[in-house]
Amino acid sequence: MRANSEPHVIKRNEVNNLSIGLLFFLLTVFPAASYSGAVTIEAIYADVPGTGFNDTSGLTEEERAMLGDNGNNASTLGQARRNAFEHAAGLLEQRLPGSNTIRVDVSFRFFEDEATVARAYTGKAISFGPEELLHIGYPPALAEKIAGRALIDESVPHLVVAFSRSLEFYYGFYGEAPPFSIDFVGIAVHEIIHGLGFHSSLEEDGSFPSATLNVTGETQSFSLDVPEWQRIYDVQMYSEEDREFIVDLEPRERERAITSDTGLLWGGTARPGEENSCSYGQRMAELKSAGIAPDGKPRLHAPPTFEEGSSITHVHTDTEDIMEYLYPYPADMDLSLAMLRDMGWEINDEGFPPSCVLTGISVTPTSGLVTTEGGGTAAFQVKLESEPISDVIIPLRSSDPSEGTADTRALEFTPDDWEVSKTVTVTGMNDGDEDGARRYAIVLERVRSRDRFYHGFDPDDVSLTNRDNDPEPGVPSPDSASPPGEEAGLGGLGCAIAAEEQVQDTSRGGMPVQLLLAALLIFAIPWRSLRTQKRHLIRADFLSG
User: Fold this and answer.
1) Domain end residue (candidates: 324, 355, 386)
2) What string of DSSP letters covers 338-380?
3) What 8-state DSSP symbol labels residue 307?
4) CA distances from 523 to 31, 282, 516, 527 (A)
5) pTM (2 d.p.)
6) Same-domain check for residues 331 and 371
7) Closest among 141, 159, 165, 158 to 47, alpha carbons compared
8) Is 113 a domain residue?
9) Are residues 457 and 501 in the same domain?
10) Under 8 Å between Cβ of 200 and 312
């Protein structure tokens, strides 16, 4: 059974200033509210009375005791199945923030291939957004999550999950399944994740199918027939051999990529059309020891022989994850959830990889610092802009150690202290030469880290000036300056300051300073003479009076 939905959505309208302001308000205020709860996964039990989830067969005392010890307190087979499915749904609800409801039609049925354990289906894919992206289909639940509103009728399920009536399942919440039994909770989580978007539209021959998409917008809805469409999952896949996303390849190249054993990777481009996005799937994969490519991309299950329902739409078996081909117990769903996040889902941050904000290292200040040959120091701060998943080491060196050196050869940040700024103190060196003020830099070398988003990052360098303490011949040192109050040239201390400024400005062109001094001398002499004449006139008036 495949869930269908009524045509819904899209038309882009002219946007005025008022609507822009309203859009900004909605994006900044309401998304914050969505984190206040979790999505609700609502089970719609579609079995006829007496079968599947509605089976009233009683459990033996031994079965009830075993299931009860593992969290499932049920007295009938149908109740045990319902409890197990709702427990599986709860595991996902804890990780998906929001307020929308995901309706799942669930049942037990016979499959033509008796080896089939379970299957998941979604309703018609929904498309929305810019016209150039209308060929990309989203599963209904994800489309509603991104749009922030209902897009299909409330009577229609977002996805359908069917379990085999020919196989034996274990319905405990915890523990290992008995021999010859299949863990039902793990399978249920696995299939729901498929319905949330972990599924490809690629055909066995590497082609994309034609389809009718439900296109949705604010004022109208319509159906769109497209000759070649892709799921949001498809646009993330990357061919290791071709070094291209598979949507950019020809069908024969795609066919080779999806049957390349370990050559198909999760590229993690996030939402299509967005630049500078980073992949949560790749960050989570770096925390795992197996199943990833050298550059950190998760490997997808692409066996030499195409397997319908399994090829492409699973993580490679070495990853030991819920979406692994062999369906392990969902003790670790993080990689799959990270990849769902790349598709557009929101995942709560508890135990999740660091934020995918753009990698950055701030250095403050990067110029204007002064040291002196007498041992005068200057300092600057270094801080990471986002949390790394591994230690970040920034080597430092001086461009001219004879002028100044830093108090450390490297800065090290860890995931535990990454938010704390680190201070680097630079001390001026005495070279014994009368070389005036000299410029140099503290060079921050490229980063070394196992976090590939930081590894190789090149932070800004810091420029400094080291002042000389050896005066040039003929220039009096500060110790030989006349005491304040005694006239020397233009008058005591003022002359000493002017002389010091002249020495500092020599490297930038001292002629303007010399002209200023000459002008002051020209005007100072008449002004002093005028003041003397005025005093004499005042004294004469006083005596004559």
Assistant:
1) 355
2) HHHHHHT-----TTPPPP-PPP-EEEE--S-EEEETTS-EEEE
3) -
4) 70, 74, 11, 6
5) 0.72
6) no
7) 165
8) no
9) no
10) yes
